[in-house]
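Structure ticket #2291
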Amino acid sequence: MKNLIIAVLFILPTFAIAQRGSERNAEIESYRIAYLTQKLDLSTEEARIFWPIYNDWQREQDLLRKERTKMISFRKITEIEALSDTEVQTLILNDFSFKQRELNLEKRYFLKLKSSLPIKIVGKYYRAQEAFKRELLAKYRANASPQRN
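Resolution: structure written out below.
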C-alpha cells in the first residue's frame, strides 16, 4: 500500500500532463502507471527513484511527439511524384534524424535508470513496457471488433 501511495505522489505531475491531452491518453497513461506499479513491485526507496525518472522521460517523449506532429514527415506525403529528388531525400533524412533523437532519448534514460536502480529492475521495466503494449493492443482490438451473439 505504501508503494502505491508513493507511486501516486510521484505520478501526479504525469497525470496532470495527460489530463491536458485527450481523455483516451489520460486513460492509457493511468492504465500504464497502474500496470507498471503492479509489475515492478518497487520498494519505497526504488519507487522514490524510479517515478521521477519515468515522469521526466514521459515529458520529453511527449515533447518529441508534439514536435513530430508539426514537422512535414515523409510518411505524411501522399504524392511522391510531385516532389523533387532533393525534397524526397530531405524528408527521408529528416525522418532518420528524428528516429535517432528518439533512440538517443531512450539510451539516455536507460543510463539514468541503470545508474540509479539495480539492472534487474531496469530489465523488469522494459519487459513490463513491452507486455503493456501487447496487452493494450489486445484490449483495443477486442473493443474494436464487432460484438457477436
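Closing remark: The radius of gyration is 19 Å.
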